[in-house]
């Protein structure tokens, strides 16, 4: 047995050879053979740990023998890997690599400081003692951070930019400008009025200094929101004077008298209704009701109807039976309309 680094391992005899001399041995192991192979595997691992090698390649083994070797090596904290093809498949035995893994707070161990570190900490605490006021201030700041609302409006809220450091030379030049004399008056006018118009000669500082006045004043009063930009207010509202109407003609009624009554019904049964029951029969619009039909008859033929009945024919047409008052003769009205 030898590793790939050229170092020979203890013993060249394969401990997993069976009695017949076969390298792969039997396919299945009974309890007695399994115990023997486990003992021999432990002996191989013991010799490997004493050798000081990082890994070794063992001799050819059968599948059952490799299974026993994998189990014993894993139990001892070693890493095994099979290589080669049957029937010349063997095992590479090596130490397990220590890799950095993410651990949870449950499995982590506390850090124990050394005596030297503890002595330095004691000296620092003695030199800078922690008072009760310091602890109260710390807890107040911590509670304020925890209960601070984190809304989208507070995050996106535009703040007032801080005042930039102004050199002394530049400050002297700013103080000499004519606009600096009217700083208090300009700020008071802005506070009292919604719109302020500032006029002055070229180079007086109305364009550069007035925004600076507002910024300085806003930093003094941070709760006041101001703007250095002027936006023209929309104060003019004119009355509407359209040149033409939006609709040139009113909507036409879809159920007027001419649309309600389509045409008279002139079958033999309808003629019999006229003679026997003083009733006229019409084909009307499907959406028309009895009130519409009665009003249409009164409007078109100047005839008063006493009763109106309707039905839907098999041809999906709406038929109206208009019974006239006793003052009117249905036969005469039918002649005037053009029934007959």
TrEMBL record:
Residues covered by region (Disordered): 1-30, 147-166
The UniProt record lists the keyword Ribonucleoprotein: yes
GO biological process: translation
InterPro entries: Nucleotide-bd_a/b_plait_sf (IPR012677), P-loop_NTPase (IPR027417), R3H_dom (IPR001374), R3H_dom_sf (IPR036867), Ribosomal_uL23-like (IPR013025), Ribosomal_uL23/eL15/eS24_sf (IPR012678), Ribosomal_uL23_CS (IPR001014), Ribosomal_uL23_N (IPR005633)
Top-level taxon of origin: Eukaryota
GO cellular component: ribonucleoprotein complex; ribosome
Residue ranges annotated for the R3H domain, each copy included: 35-97
Alphabetically ordered keywords of this record: Ribonucleoprotein, Ribosomal protein, RNA-binding, rRNA-binding
PROSITE patterns (alphabetical): R3H, RIBOSOMAL_L23
Listed GO MF terms: rRNA binding; structural constituent of ribosome
Keyword presence, Ribosomal protein: yes
PANTHER family (UniProt xref): 60S RIBOSOMAL PROTEIN L23A
Protein family membership: Belongs to the universal ribosomal protein uL23 family.
Record's protein name: R3H domain-containing protein
């Amino acid at each position: 047995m030898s590793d790939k680094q050229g170092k020979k391992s203890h013993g060249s005899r394969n401990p997993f050879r069976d009695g017949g001399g076969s390298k792969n041995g039997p396919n299945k192991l009974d309890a007695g053979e399994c115990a023997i192979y486990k003992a021999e595997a432990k002996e191989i691992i013991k010799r490997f740990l004493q050798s000081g090698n990082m890994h070794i390649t063992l001799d050819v083994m059968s599948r059952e023998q490799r299974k026993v070797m994998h189990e014993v090596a894993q139990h001892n904290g070693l890493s095994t890997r099979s290589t080669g093809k049957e029937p010349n498949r063997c095992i590479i035995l090596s130490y397990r690599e220590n890799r950095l893994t993410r651990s949870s707070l449950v499995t982590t161990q506390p850090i124990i400081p050394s005596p030297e570190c503890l002595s330095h900490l004691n000296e620092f605490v003695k030199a800078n003692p922690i008072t009760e006021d310091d602890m109260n201030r710390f807890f107040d700041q911590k509670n304020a951070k925890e209960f601070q609302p984190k809304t989208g409006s507070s995050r996106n809220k535009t703040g007032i930019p801080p005042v930039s450091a102004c050199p002394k030379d530049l400050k002297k030049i700013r103080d000499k400008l004519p606009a600096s004399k009217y700083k208090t008056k300009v700020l008071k006018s802005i506070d009292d009025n919604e719109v302020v118009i500032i006029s002055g000669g070229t180079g007086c500082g109305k364009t550069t200094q007035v925004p600076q006045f507002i910024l300085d004043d806003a930093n003094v009063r941070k709760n006041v929101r101001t703007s250095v930009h002027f936006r023209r207010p929309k104060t003019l509202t004119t009355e509407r004077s359209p040149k033409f109407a939006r609709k040139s003609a009113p909507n036409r009624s879809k159920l007027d008298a001419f649309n309600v009554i389509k045409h008279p019904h002139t079958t033999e049964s309808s003629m019999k209704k006229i003679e026997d029951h003083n009733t006229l029969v019409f084909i009307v619009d499907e959406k028309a009701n009895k009130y519409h039909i009665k009003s249409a008859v009164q409007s078109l033929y100047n005839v008063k109807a006493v009763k109106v009945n309707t039905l839907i024919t098999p041809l999906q047409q709406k038929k109206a039976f208009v019974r006239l008052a006793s003052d009117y003769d249905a036969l005469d009205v039918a002649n005037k309309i053009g029934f007959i």
